[in-house]
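Sample A.
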Amino acid sequence: MFRLNADQGLKGLFIYTIFYFFMATGKVKWFNTQKGFGFIVQEDNKDLFVHFKDVLGGIESLKENDIVEFEVAEGRKGLQAVNVKKV
């Protein structure tokens, strides 16, 4: 388990360290390939943000209602899915 640490670096750049919490399974609620993000419904029925850079196999691989495995991490705006892959 870990937390997100943000330190302001040179010239106003932020460096983020992401700490992973656990592996989980869920279902793709929706994913917009043009905007590059979407949401996964977790087993506890809570929505979890997913960004295109965190989808293994490319963003075209995610479709509504797909079952996926992922790690939950703390991002800039709260928890999000990372290392997302279709089951």
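Sample B.
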Amino acid sequence: MTYQEVERLKLRLTKYNKQQFEEFCLYLSSSDLDTEKRNEIRDEILDHLLEGEKQGKGFQDLFGQNPREYTQQIVEQLPKSSLKEKITFALSILLISTIIIFSRSHNDSSVFVDLTLFSILSSAVIIGFFKLTKRFAFKSSIMSILILTLIIQVAGVLYYFLKILFINIS
């Protein structure tokens, strides 16, 4: 299913089932899984939910009282993302970092420092985001938003001070 189809079908779900399905998808997306298999599982779960609702069943009726545990079991059985996917992801971060760095005016000595620091810190923030998303799936989203905001702020401050430090050293 395409993203648009999934979004359209989600509108048919009850509020609670939609929320649980979105938490399920969030947990899957933050796991190191093969993209194709992850999407197949997402589509299957959505189909089961839609069919279950026709019979008067909810998410917990279909998938158990502990949706997080159920999702973890699924994740353990699915193939992990390939080395090619991981390299593509890392290169996309580097490319985006490069575009951001070169879109601003710099002198030659600070470009290398900026590119290195920005790539490392943005990678750390993205990895932290995925880990937090997985940790807080099926839990309070306010706490995860606060922690993620704190991580981004700390990364920004760290970037600023490390940049000053490295430019003053060179």
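B remarks: The longest helix spans residues 108-136. The mean pLDDT is 82.
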